[in-house]
Design brief:
With 395 residues, this protein is α/β, with parallel strands linked by helices. The chain has 20 helices and 12 strands. The chain has an 8-stranded parallel beta barrel with strand order 3-4-5-6-9-10-11-12, surrounded by 7 helices. The chain starts with a helix and ends in a 21-residue tail after the last helix.
Length: 395
Amino acid sequence: MNRSLRKLEPPRVVNIEDLRLLAQRRVPQVIFDYMDGGAEDEITLRANCRAFQELTFRPRQAVATSPRELSRKVLGREIALPVLLAPIGYSRMFHPHGEVGAARAAGAAGIGYILSTISGSRLEEVSAATEGPCWYQLYLVGGRAAAEAGIARARDAGYSALVVTVDTPVAGMRERDSRNGMRQLVGTGFFGKLLYFDEFVSRPRWLAGFLQDGGMPKLENIVVPGQGPLPLMDVTSALARAVVTWEDFKWIREIWKGPLLAKGIVTGDDAKRALDAGCAGVIVSNHGGRQLDCCLTGLSALPEVVKAVGHQAEVLMDGGVRRGRDIVKAICLGAKAVLVGRAYAYGLAAAGEPGVTRAIQILREDLDRTLALLGCRSVAELDSSYLAKTGSRDC
């Protein structure tokens, strides 16, 4: 592991974008575009990153800040950084280490991991792999009975929170995936996969790992009574049959007694509905720009949601986090912590678990350095006074 990680050190890998470029070279284009792309014209995808760039700092100078405190309590549990790895479906297509490797890297770094329903690893294996807090993200794919079984398994496996994604009444129009034939790739037919023969053999390291891992995994956490785990599939039609409403939170709340969070909130009104539904937290998110294009960015929606929630629940956010300074900006605007998705997915696709470890390391170093340059001793001391007015384009 240490030798693998050394290959990801400077000068080869300095930032998250370097991991992105390594991932692009290692995996087939169809898989890279699934990971990297967004909905329609990808306006929101780009805006998520641009929102951070348009917000500038007001540092305090000549301040002694060493040592700096980076840890934070989230839902009552302390994590080493105000960061959790976001739920990402199909992770084992990026690298055989998949969800298990990502969770292990998160635990070793002292941060949290959120497992997607749409994963190829059993939730019990994932929770056993990590020392940090592990949350389970819920879709209703497979029907209510399958969802209830998944919730019961998550409870028994020690997952400490349940995250219900509310922004997927249908799947967004991800045009890269449509052009590349992602649906055919994840379908069950052998002949559909032959379309990718040339692309696969041009990525021999990826192909070897993919075949040794058994090819397309099943969705081990969606077990339909009488059918077993669902095969890996395009979830477009399945999501349309699995719409989550605020009414569903009633029966979810009855069978899940731990903390419950709603993910996909971008307005104060929906944040209040989440509180009414019994949520202990909300995750401000536009699904990484993969659902509704021209949607509010998580960062721009954050102040409204924080104001609506007050001290009644914890607010987290995701979308566009690529630097430690992005984490700082989100916390200054009221987020308790951030979720990072693509930032670690690039590392996973580039090098498996060591790539995830390197992505977390980059964010940790960025965060620590940003606090020092701001003249701030702790993430707990961050507030809006460290930021210039939204709209400045100096960065």
